[in-house]
Structures are given as structure tokens and as C-alpha cells.
Amino acid sequence: MLRKSTRKLLITVAIAFFISLVSSLLVLQYTLKSPPSPLPGPTSVSLVDKVLRELSWGNIAFNAPSTMRYKQPRTVELLLSPSLSASQLQAQLEQRVASESDRVRISNRMEAELAGRGFTVEALTPSLQAIASMQTSRWKWEVTPTDSGPQRLYITLSAHIDVAGRDAPLVVRTFDRTIDVEITIPLRVSEFIEKNWQWLWAALLVPIAGYLWRHWMKRSDAPKPA
User: Fold this and answer.
1) Tell me, what's the pLDDT at 136?
2) Which of 50, 75, 78, 140 could disulfide-pair with 62, CB 3.0 to 4.6 Å?
3) Residue 226 within any structural domain of the chain
4) What's the domain range around 129?
């Protein structure tokens, strides 16, 4: 038979093992029911929110004419500065008529794009530019209307930010301007002929040519005077 001391030791070890097993099961059950909240990952929007809050402010000014002539190019500008006021920027525009200004979030790299369905747009400056506090950043486009009537131009301004080590554009402001594109009567007639020359050839020129041919044939068959 086992001694009393040995029996007490075995009982103590068994009780300790049982308590440890029950504790482990309780911890495991709690862990499965209440998983810990995941830390913000590289795709979390909180990263973008943090960067957005840390962005500086700057002023912008741009011009876009309210009226344009069909197929006659005009220049559109957008100026940005972290230090100059909106009125100071508007004074630097080459054409100040119909200019607008605003205050926007900016980063050290900004991108501006101009687009419009009824226009041909040629960028005269890089769309993505580095921003300096002591220098005005300037974007310029040559815009040529390709359709007449009311047309819309859109400007998109984006701040390039670092998100988890990757460069990403963040749209900070968009503008749109309705432009009335005028067309002269001679240009309208010229455009109509250019777009419908095949129909005009069949409907007008061919009958006229036939009439002239028949008229010439009648004159040829007529008896000549003696």
C-alpha cells in the first residue's frame, strides 16, 4: 500500500492538473467568443483619414471663359500656392475674366486634369507637379471646342499622398463650368457640307449633272442651220 505522504502528493498533483485544464478551457472558450479587434491594416481607411488630417491648406485660382468660338482655341489656367491669397493668385492669371478661387487641402505633389466631351484639350504643363511654399504652381491647357451649343468643362484637383508606402491620388476638389460655344453661319454651312457631302452629292449634284447632260444632248441633236 502507498504511504500517506505519497497519496497526498498524487492527490495534490491531480487537483493542480484539473484546475489547470479547466482554466485553459475557459480561456480558449473566451478567446473563440470574443476575438481581439484587428489592428489597422495597410488597406484601412483610417490610414487615409490620418493623412488627410495632416495635409496643409492652400489657395487656388482658375479661369474658364463663359463663351467660346467653335474651333477657336483658348487657354485655361489653374494656379496654386500654399502662401499667396486667392486674390493674389487671381491677379497672376493671364486672363482674369470669369475667374474663380477656393481653398483646398494640398500635399507636396498635386495633380490637375481638365476634360470635356465637347472639347479637344491639350496639356501645356505637366499634370503632376511638386509644390513649393515660395513658388506658385501653374497648370495650363489649350482648349478647342469641337461641338457648338452649351458644353461643360471639368477640372479635377488631386493630392498625391503616401498610403502604406504607396503613392495614391486623393481627389480634393472638382470644378465644372458650362461654356456656350458659338458658331458662325459660314462655319455652320461648311460643317453641314463636310458631314453630309455624300447625301448632298446624291440629292443635288447628280440631278444637276443629269440635267446638264440632257440639255447638252438636246443641243447636239438639234438640226444645225444651213
Assistant:
1) 96
2) 78
3) no
4) 47-182
The three three-digit cell numbers of residue 53, written as one number: 488630417
Cell of 205: 449634284
**How confident is the prediction along the chain (226 residues), in pLDDT tens digits per residue?**
446 666 666 666 666 666 676 666 665 565 555 555 555 566 678 888 888 899 999 999 999 889 999 999 999 999 999 999 999 999 999 988 889 999 999 999 999 999 999 999 999 999 999 999 999 999 999 999 999 999 999 999 999 999 888 899 999 999 999 999 998 756 555 565 566 556 555 666 666 666 666 666 666 655 655 5
Q: Dihedral (C-alpha) 77, 83, 87, 88: value to the nearest 10 degrees?
A: -80
State whether the Cα torsion 39-45-47-49 is positive or negative: negative
Tell me phi and psi for residue 93, to 5 degrees. Answer: -65, 140
Q: Max Cα separation, the chain?
A: 164
Per-residue burial over 177-197, b if 16 or more Cβ lie within 10 Å, else e, is bebebebeeeeeeeeeeeeee
d(CA 143, CA 140): 10
Closest CA relative to residue 137, chosen from 161, 111, 114: 111
Residue 82: CATH number of its domain: 2.60.40.10
Cell of 191: 460643317
Beta pairing, strands 149-163 & 166-182: antiparallel
Using CB atoms within 10 Å of the CB of residue 94, give its burial: 0 to 12 exposed, 13 to 18 middle, 19+ buried: exposed
Residue 119 falls within a domain, yes or no? Answer: yes
For residue 207, what is the enclosing H or E element?
Answer: helix 206-221
